[in-house]
Amino acid sequence: MDRFTAELDAQIKEICAIQAGSQPPPRLVEKPTPAPAPVTLPPDEVLTVNEVARILKLHRRTVCMMTKAGKLPGFRVGRGWRFNTQAIREFISR
Hints:
alpha+beta; 2 domains; three-stranded antiparallel sheet; 4 helices; rod-shaped
C-alpha cells in the first residue's frame, strides 16, 4: 500500500467513525477576514460608475439608476456616466 492509499484509508476510517457516532466531528476553524481598507476619494477628479459604486458600496446598475433619476449628481460622456469627486463628497455628507 503506498502513502496516498494509506492516507485515504485513514480518512475513510475517520469519516466512518464520525458517522457511526463513536468520534466527535472535527471542528472547523474559520480564519478572520481582514477589514476592508477605507476608501479615500482622490482630489478633484472625475470618477467612473465602477469607482462610485465601490465608494458607495452599491452595484453599478444602482449608481446608473440613481443618476438617471437625478438622485446622484453625474454627467454623460458618450454612453457612460462620469462623476465629479466634490459632488460625490457632498452627496455622501448629506
